[in-house]
Write a structure and sequence with these properties.
single chain
Length: 298
């Protein structure tokens, strides 16, 4: 790689680390408009909230040293996933090893977040985390299937653009969109915090900088998921040959998808815990079977 490409990758990685709270502020304003509310006073409100949490006293939960440690480790893995994803997408070095590394980094951030909640001694936090584990087990299957199938379909379309190859791409993209939306923790799939008696479920024992780190990590993972969908869509439309074009298109499309996910969530209600998991499982199995049939005849 030349110096300019390295500089562009570094710039996009840094911007990606600071952009999620700003996009969350925009999303909050949009949701407020849809629901006929005033909403936050400015799109910078999420940044202000994180700043206030950073200076507040950290109340360590009973036996919660491991929980706090895993919160910060999950932040490190989410930052690493953004940096590595930026490098892979801009340099077009997608291969089985890089795909596996991306999946490991993304799932590791989720798993560390779950571990931080389970590590506390609060039963409400543990119950909320177990519900999230159930959802995650089903959703990770859909995410890996959709991600791999979409990338494989893009390769096939570049060499053999048949209707069945395009159908396989559409099915893989559908699974990827659903799995990334669920992975963002938006309605109706925020079931780990769905019940009133949980008092915010997995977050009940976090405060101060630990809570701020938890929330910031969650926003960054939302951005990562939106970036994956943006890449899958834009690659089919535009042949990327220039790193600057890659950065501009990905930044714009990722922001649009991030806000669209928020708009969809604003118009939905919560699902029952058992119904949400069962519906996702049925959807992913159906999409996978259709994908197998499409690849057999492609």
């Amino acid at each position: 790689m030349d110096f300019i490409t390295i500089s562009l990758i570094s710039f996009f990685a840094v911007v990606s680390a600071f952009l999620p709270p700003l996009l969350d502020g925009v999303e909050r304003k949009v949701r407020a408009k849809i629901q006929s509310r005033i909403g936050p006073p400015t799109v910078m409100q999420t940044w202000y909230d994180l700043r206030k949490l950073a200076v507040k006293e950290l109340k360590m939960p009973l036996g919660g040293e491991l929980a706090v440690l895993t919160v910060f480790l999950s932040l490190i893995t989410s930052v690493s996933s953004i940096a590595y994803l930026t490098y892979v997408l801009i340099t077009s070095t997608l291969n089985p090893l890089s795909i596996a590394t991306l999946i490991v980094l993304i799932t590791a951030s989720h798993n560390l977040t779950l571990l931080s909640s389970v590590s506390t001694s609060n039963p409400f936090s543990i119950v909320g985390s177990y519900r999230n584990v159930t959802l995650l087990l089903v959703n990770e299957f859909g995410f890996m299937a959709g991600f791999i199938a979409t990338l494989y379909a893009l390769v096939r379309l570049s060499t053999n653009p048949t209707p069945l190859s395009f159908l396989a791409y559409a099915l893989g993209l559908a699974a990827l969109i659903v799995s990334t939306y669920v992975g963002c923790g938006r309605l109706p799939y925020d079931i780990h915090e769905a019940e009133p008696e949980l008092a915010s479920g997995a977050l009940i024992e976090f405060s101060g900088v630990a809570l701020g780190t938890y929330l910031y990590t969650h926003l960054m993972m939302r951005y990562v998921f939106s970036l994956l969908v943006a890449y899958a869509i834009s690659t089919l439309i535009i042949g990327f040959t220039n790193a600057l074009v890659v950065i501009a298109v990905l930044a714009l499309l990722t922001s649009i998808i991030y806000i669209l996910y928020g708009v969809v969530a604003a118009m939905l209600g919560r699902t029952r815990v058992d119904l949400g998991v069962r519906t996702l499982f049925t959807l992913y199995v159906s999409l996978t079977l259709c994908l197998v049939v499409a690849w057999l005849f492609a």
